[in-house]
């Protein structure tokens, strides 16, 4: 009933080749493997590091990032197969029907790749990068249970996490990318709210560092955290583990799923069971 998870505070720094990117990613993957992780989470937009290979005269733009999709997927599929871990490969920008989508990737140990497009996109993504919203939401079956992947801004909308819990997800993975304290705390506080409301675990992480020649990725403010409901079996502040703010590092912790079932049945509060579904939507009935 336990899952060991790691979350990467990925340091964005200028690189000159895809091989440099691959080497940095391998460092984090191997570290998580040494810690015995079964799931490892990378942040949102971490593959924008590939755009830093452009120079001042010929900078790479977000429209060119989908050109790295095959290399990125091959790299992370190999990592997952070699290590036996489930890797939530942050998000990567892909092109479908000449439109850009911000897509989270789940790499299974058996070589499968599954995707979840970001459902709620920020004004910057729309106005500066001309991105499109994802149009479907799903739960991922793993040999350790059901999980959901909700990217950054997604976690700020309580309805979608209600749906995830109704579909059976016990762990929400939230890859994130925020450029200042305001955005960081918005995501962090709502992660805690979603964990309390739905009595689930939330694993969140963000980018740190800077890409000095990539528009809208010059500033990053991030911290990984493994968040629990606030009840007696868990830490009082609802934080199982957290990284050092804005440092290049990885955190690891064990998630005991049996504790979730315990507090849902007889916790100090039973927020999932005590929903007023006579007043508002019962997603469990609709999604079940």
CATH class: Alpha Beta
**Name of the CATH superfamily:** Carbon-nitrogen hydrolase
Categorize the overall geometry. Answer: globular
Sheet bearing the most strands, described?
7 strands, mixed
Can you tell me the CATH architecture? 4-Layer Sandwich
- In total, the number of strands is 15
In percent terms, what proportion of residues is strand?
Answer: 25-35%
Helix percentage range: 25-40%
CATH topology name, in short, is: Nitrilase/N-carbamoyl-D-aminoacid amidohydrolase
What is the residue-mean pLDDT, rounded to a whole number? Answer: 96
Given the structure, what is the number of helices? 7
Output the radius of gyration.
18 Å
Structural class: alpha/beta
Distance, first to last CA:
23 Å
Number of domains: 1
Uncertain runs are: none
Order of helices and strands: EEHEHEEEHEEEHEHEEEEEHH
Overview in brief:
By secondary structure, this protein is of the alpha/beta class. Helix content is 27%, strand content 27%.
